[in-house]
Design brief:
With 308 residues, the chain is mainly β. The chain has one domain: Pectate Lyase C-like (3 Solenoid). It is built from two helices and 31 strands. Helix 2 links the parallel strand 1 and strand 2. It is elongated and about 60 Å long.
Length: 308
């Protein structure tokens, strides 16, 4: 047993000492993030000098920290593999102080970040004028955590719809302390996660935003939607509701959906409901929500009524 314990310690030490700090910037040996992505190894920290990079990257290693230093590092208008500005294939990735703008793809779902691994954390980052801000796939495992980040002017509906964030069936999604504004069609937040935690965010169409739902949980699941500021704008292309639950069927098991302490302002004269559930028998608990503007119904069940 002592030999086994010693072997484990030696492996952990070797892993710790093998991690490198890779510096990227106009005055560095590696001038672009894609150059770093070509040489990065598991466990590395990539520090990208503040500035604008007309570049895209495919990250294949695991346990990476990818961060802007000296201010935000902004990735602008170039996509890799006709998919994303950053296509992340590795797992256990942290992205910090980065900006992503202008992602376009043939199918209309170009993403600032497209994540194919199992665990992603995005902190203090900005996503502006992309088709998808973040697109994350999942198969019932892994987590996505988004904190203190900003999503402005994302979205498109061409061959398929793109959203501020679109999270597949991961085990857990957390979105906290972030801003979603001026979404162009699509939804601000779309989550197929088994557990969705959406807390302390600002989710606003604004006067020009044409978003569909503020929050879409198409397969239901368990959710906590707490202490958000939500606004439905006059140009919204969806008159039915602000928060939709189970519109594509309750494929995910649920311990209930809890919607509490939110403030909601309606600037859309056709809005039918703040929350709508499409799932018979699903427990939806609402408390302490505050409303401004005309809210015909805080909660409704079933499909929307025909538009006038």
């Amino acid at each position: 047993m002592r030999d086994l314990a010693l072997a484990i310690v030696l492996v952990l030490i070797a892993q710790a000492t093998s991690a490198r700090v890779i510096e990227v910037g106009p005055t560095r040996a590696l001038t672009t993030p894609s150059a770093a992505a070509a040489v990065v190894r598991d466990g590395d920290v990539v520090r990208i000098d503040a500035g604008e990079y007309h570049d895209c990257a495919i990250w294949r290693a695991n346990d990476l920290t990818l961060e802007g230093v000296g201010g935000p590092a902004r990735m602008q208008g170039v996509t890799c593999a006709n998919q994303a500005i950053w296509l992340i294939l590795g797992s256990r990735i942290t992205v910090r102080r980065m900006g992503f703008a202008g992602a376009r793809a043939t199918f209309g779902n170009g993403s600032g970040i497209k994540f194919m691994g199992t665990t992603l954390a995005v902190e203090d980052s900005e996503f502006r004028d992309n088709e998808n801000g973040i697109l994350a796939r999942g198969e019932g495992e892994g987590t996505v955590r988004i904190t203190r980040s900003t999503f402005i002017g994302n979205g498109r509906c061409a061959r398929e719809c793109a959203h501020g964030i679109y999270i597949g069936p991961v085990a857990r999604l957390t979105v906290a302390g972030s801003v979603f504004r001026n979404q162009r069609v699509g939804h601000h937040i779309k989550s197929r996660a088994l557990l969705s935690e959406i807390e302390g965010n600002r989710i606003e169409d604004g006067p020009q935003g044409t978003a569909s739902y503020a929050i879409d949980l198409p397969n239901a699941g368990t959710a906590f939607i707490l202490r958000n500021r939500i606004e439905k704008g006059p140009m919204s292309e969806n008159f039915a509701t602000a928060i939709a639950i189970g519109a594509e069927g309750a494929r995910n098991p649920s311990s209930g959906v809890y919607i509490a302490g939110n403030s909601f302002r309606n600037d859309n004269s056709k809005l039918q409901a703040f929350v709508r559930s499409f799932v018979p028998g699903l427990h939806v608990e609402m408390s302490g929500n505050r409303f401004a503007g005309i809210v015909a119904a805080p909660f409704r069940f079933g499909p929307p009524e025909p538009s006038n």
